[in-house]
Amino acid sequence: MFSYAGRRALITGGGRGIGRAIALAYAKAGADVAVAARSPGQLDDTVREIKELGREAWALPVDLTARGAPQDLVTRALDVMGRIDVLVNSAGDTGRLERSTFDLTDDDVDHVYQLHVKSALFTSIKAAESMVRLGIPGAILNITSTGGLFPTPGAVLYGSAKSAINHLTSTLGMEFGTHGIRVNAIAPGLIDTPLVADRLVSEEDQIDLASFYPINRVGHVDDVSAAALYLCSAEAGWVSGVTLLINGGQHASNAMFRWPRRHNEVPAGRRI
Ligand SMILES: NC(=O)c1ccc[n+]([C@@H]2O[C@H](COP(=O)([O-])OP(=O)(O)OC[C@H]3O[C@@H](n4cnc5c(N)ncnc54)[C@H](OP(=O)(O)O)[C@@H]3O)[C@@H](O)[C@H]2O)c1
After folding, report:
1. Does residue 1 lie in a domain region?
2. In a domain, 3, yes or no
3. How far is the CA of 253 from the centre of ligand 1 (A)?
4. Which residue, 26, 34, 131, 195, has most beta carbons within 10 Å?
5. Which of 49, 62, 90 to mutate to test the pocket of ligand 1 (most atoms within 8 A of CB)?
6. What is the extent of the structural domain holding 127?
7. Cα of 18 to ligand 1 centre, how many Å?
8. Ligand 1 mean position to 93 CA, how many Å?
9. pLDDT of the chain along its 272 residues, tens only?
10. Do the strands 86-89 and 8-12 form a parallel or antiparallel pair, or are they unpaired?
11. Cα dihedral sign, 164-234-16-199
């Protein structure tokens, strides 16, 4: 439905989960794709699958928590691809959800803000610079979280980091818009990926968590990749600065406030 023919995309977190699903969706739509993460084996698997679709693909191993790594990654992507039409920031982790708020350290804050916020900020700036230089009306997409819009007890670090990315999405959308570059975000609810596999082990977990969504199931990576396909397509040419909730209607209920504590992995009794 949406054509990505002739476009080249850089996708962080493209080795598995949501990033991988978006990489494959873009490749199916005609894009060449570079994927970046730490695990070379997973990147190679995604690259192989993209090549099987007849598209060009590159694996760019990187640890985005290293200082300067996001900027270097964009330089490397431009070296191999020549241009970046689409940038997707999907790399992320659970943002130290396993720790009680009282136990958070300076290192935890540095890790979560570097991986989620600084990484998305600097890849966006560097990619947009190249788009301006090459006259490309590019698109940038950040994968944030419904947890960045609604407070979840026990998730202050993850939620505030995702909230910051929502804000930089709208601000950069305004700034880069004058160059024809669009910046949007998707804020998913719980999506069945390796990131949350330990919360979806039993059938009871599945039923329990599904009940928090008016559309009575947890999300699938294709729920997110379908939205990613639209938001970075030419058809979304007048859509920018938006954070799109893909969460089965969770935001419209008061489910955020009923979220069972055991699903945030914080040991009982260590909460504020
Ligand atoms: N799944 C959900 O329920 C959900 C809900 C809302 C938002 N999100 C957000 O969606 C994004 C993708 O999550 P996911 O569910 O697809 O998780 P996932 O399956 O664990 O994939 C995360 C990706 O990020 C990469 N990554 C992690 N740390 C990295 C680092 N230091 N440097 C470079 N790459 C790194 C991982 O590869 P390596 O480990 O090999 O580096 C992997 O490719 C994240 O930003 C997450 O916060 C997920």
Report:
1. no
2. no
3. 26
4. 26
5. 90
6. 8-264
7. 7
8. 5
9. 799 999 999 999 999 999 999 999 999 999 999 999 999 999 999 999 999 999 999 999 999 999 999 999 999 999 999 999 999 999 999 988 888 899 999 999 999 999 999 999 999 999 999 999 999 999 999 999 999 999 888 899 999 999 999 999 999 999 999 999 999 999 999 999 999 988 888 888 888 899 889 999 999 999 999 999 999 999 999 999 999 999 999 888 765 556 655 555 544 444 43
10. parallel
11. positive
Exposure on the CB side of residue 107, measured as CA atoms within 13 A: 2
Domain count across the chain: 1
Q: Is residue 269, in this structure, part of any structural domain at all?
A: no
How does DSSP classify residue 92?
-
CATH at residue 135:
3.40.50.720
| pTM (2 d.p.) | 0.95
Residue 33 lies in a domain: yes
What is the residue type of 75? Answer: T
Within 6 A (CB) of ligand 1 lie 12-13, 15-19, 37-39, 42, 62-65, 90-93, 115, 143, 145, 188, 190-191, 193-196
Atom of ligand 1 nearest to the CA of 19: 16
Torsion, CA 226, CA 63, CA 31, CA 218, rounded to 10 = -10
Phi, then psi, of 14 in degrees rounded to 5:
-80, 5
